[in-house]
Amino acid sequence: MRNSADHSSLLKRSLRILGIVLAWLLLGGMTAWAVAALYFDLSFKRLPMLTPIVYLVVIVAATCWVRTHARKMLVCFAGFLIVLGCWLSLKPSNDRPWRLDNAQTPWAEVEGDRVTIHNFRHCYYRRVDDFTCEWLTKTVLLSQLRGVDLFVDYWGSPWMAHPIVSFQFGDDDYVAASIEARYQVGQSYSAIRSMFRQFTIIYVLASERDLVRLRTNYRSGEDVYLFHSVATPEWSRLLFLQYLQRANLLRDEPRWFNVVTNNCTTNIFAQMEATGHLPAGSSRYSWWILVNGRAPEMLHRGGNFAGNLPFDELKKRAYINPVAVTIEDAPEFSRKIRVNRAGFESRAP
């Protein structure tokens, strides 16, 4: 009987210790997040380490001053909540010193069949960091929208990529849409920073000679693949209008970019879901939306790409860098990167 009681007491003590350890691990993670948020988003530009250091000193001093585990935990949790409240109060803005290629936000007017896109971007590149951007007004007709193509840009890992959706109008006119982090002067992409309130999100509407050629011809170490979807003209129009609606919203109400929750791929699937019809075999919460380098394979598995080929062969024939580097800034760039490309022979004439 006594052995049973001892065993029960030992189990309770073990569970209590385990609970305390787990609680401290959770609070340690919260404290680390608070320190990072203070450093990235709530610091002084000239002294970025000041607020994180002051925060840590206050938390350590307070936890040393109180006696019980519960009070020490409460101190850490209260500090986290204060930082979280300040962090959530930060508001995005379109009025900042943007980089030249992010200087304007696109917006559109839809009048029946006619769509007028303002701040349609076309950049002329001399080097990756030496370019001139034009902000154009482009008019397209919804009745001429034939389908959707997908560019997938890999920059290293086969698990991560950047998708660009391109809408085909008529025989050879395209509106390419790239959902990106919007950078201020002096900023560049950082996966860690993008989890905080460092970048806003922007829907870049531009020519393929801008968005695609930048990645095939000027940036190093990037491989771009082009797939033709089986999307109908009717669904393509719905998706295009969703893109325009979102671009107009962001012009008036900017949003924060987040590499996990509000990025290039999650936005694409949000716009697709808004049409009332997601691609076959997909869900807005599919695991491969986060590791989006696998998205082309999964979309192919659902029968969403033209070109009746196994995926490995289709992807091999979808690789456009060797052709793109030979075309330069020719007006027929879009047509030439599609010549003899698997899946594109099925397009309506």
How would you briefly describe this protein structure?
The chain is α+β, with helices and mostly antiparallel strands and 349 residues long. It is built from 10 helices and 8 strands.
- The strand line-up of the biggest sheet is 7-6-5-4-8
Helix content: 40-55%
Structural class: alpha+beta
Radius of gyration: 25 Å
Overall average pLDDT: 92
> Tell me about the biggest sheet?
5 strands, antiparallel
Span of the ends, CA to CA: 87 Å
Number of strands: 8
Order of helices and strands: HHHEEEEEEEHEHHHHHH
Beta percentage is 15-25%
- Overall, the morphology is elongated
Uncertain segments of ≥5 residues (pLDDT<50)? none
What's the number of helices? 10
The total number of structural domains is 2
Output the keywords.
349 residues, alpha+beta, 2 domains, five-stranded antiparallel β-sheet, three-stranded antiparallel β-sheet, 10 helices, 41% helix
Question: Can you give a write-up of this model?
Answer:
The structure is a single chain. 41% of the residues lie in helices and 21% in strands. It has 349 residues and is an alpha+beta fold. The protein has 2 domains: 2-88, no CATH class; 100-346, no CATH class. α1 runs antiparallel to α2 (50-65) and α1 (2-41) packs parallel to α3 (69-88). The N and C termini lie far apart (87 Å). The model has no long low-confidence stretch (mean pLDDT 92).
Task: Give the arrangement of secondary structure elements.
Layout: H1 2-41, H2 50-65, H3 69-88, E1 107-111, E2 114-127, E3 130-141, E4 145-154, E5 161-169, E6 173-182, E7 200-206, H4 208-218, E8 223-228, H5 233-252, H6 264-274, H7 295-301, H8 311-318, H9 321-327, H10 333-336
Antiparallel strand pairs: 1-2, 2-3, 4-5, 4-8, 5-6, 6-7
